[in-house]
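=== RUN LOG ===
request id: a7f3
mode: sequence -> structure
chains: 1
length: 401
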Amino acid sequence: MKSIIIPLLVSLALMVYGCNPSHTHSREEAHTHADGHDHDHDHDHDHDHDHEEAEAHQHTDEIAFTRAQAEAAGLQTETVAPGTFRQVIKTSGHVQASQGDEATIAATANGILTFARSSVAEGISVRQGEAIASISAQKLPDGDPAVKARIAYETTEKEFHRAEELVKDQIISAREFEQARMQYETARTAWEAQASSHSGRGIAVSSPIGGFIKSLLVKQGAYVSVGEPIAVVSQNRKLQLRAEVPENQYKYIRTVNGANFKMAYDNTVYKLSDLNGRLLSSGKAADGNSFYIPVTFEFDNIGDILPGGYAEIYLLSSPQENVISVPVSAITKEQGLHFVYLQLSEEEFKKQEVTTGHSDGDRIRIISGLKPGDRVVTRGVYQVKLAATSSVIPEGHSHSH
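=== RESULT ===
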């Protein structure tokens, strides 16, 4: 009997335990909540997070710049392509007037100088033959030279006509007559020279050429003597560019045949090739005082270049082929590094670091950072740079929401 009851009890216990799965589930739940999360869910989350980081990293350097912004900024680009680039010697110098384009106005009498205009100043234009000043000696002890010349002329004229009658009657000798005629001719020449320029204000002093007053050498009311310089007038049709080259660049001077330059008061880069420029001379020795070698060019004045002004000069020598260069306007500088902005698509740009070489004032050589086919922003660079601060997609940002 006992052998029958025990197997029955074991069978009932197994049946009860198998019908209640709560124990097994609790252990699974305990295992799940002890770890703090579901392992399958965590795997999916890690996959999504890695995808977002990769996508964000891909878009980190991209700059959004719309078509409307580009039109407003006047955006222009240039496709990078190897080309010819001239070797450059960067130096300084100045612009001066060419020989023969200037004339000095000198005093034609002794006296007090009065300018013809109330506001005569350097830079005003004058016409050929225009009176710029008058000289009067009316209030000086020696008197007005024009009046004295007129009196001398009238006196010698009477003496000459009298001598003409006397020589006919042989009252005076032929020698005395010739002397009277010489005195008359001399006085007449002196008077005629001043009569044409004499007025109530004195003797007028005129400009021998048309142009502009480059410099005034005397002040209003000053006393001047005959032949003393009063002013310098320049026609300013031709100008000279004089570059001062350091001695350590002497061996490259013989290959120089052109130049670009920029005036200190203007950011415009002038090319001698556009101004009918030509090389006049290259110094063969340094000045003992400055230790610089002069290189001089002549070019047509276009009207807005100031003679005497300081210039930043880029001397151009031997050409180099297959060189990548971009306009100077394409370069920005930050913390000692140089950058350009590339156009990746119509509304997508990228900031690119580059290594630069010499500049000829207009273009700058790129040693590394660009390759043929890149589209570089050459105008509107500043606007793209401003857009970069707000349109760069932050790292870790996801495009899917």
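=== NOTES ===
The domain at 88-99+236-321 is CATH 2.40.30.170 (Elongation Factor Tu (Ef-tu); domain 3).
The CA atoms of residues 328 and 362 lie 6 Å apart.
=== END ===
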